[in-house]
Amino acid sequence: MKIKLIPKVVPVKLQKIDPDATKQLDNIYLMLKSLIETKNNENVSFLNGQILKEITVTNTAKIFSHSLGRQWSGYFVTKRENSNIPYNTETLMHDKSNAIELISSASVVIDLYIF
Question: Domain residue spans in the chain?
Answer without folding.
Answer: 14-47, 49-115
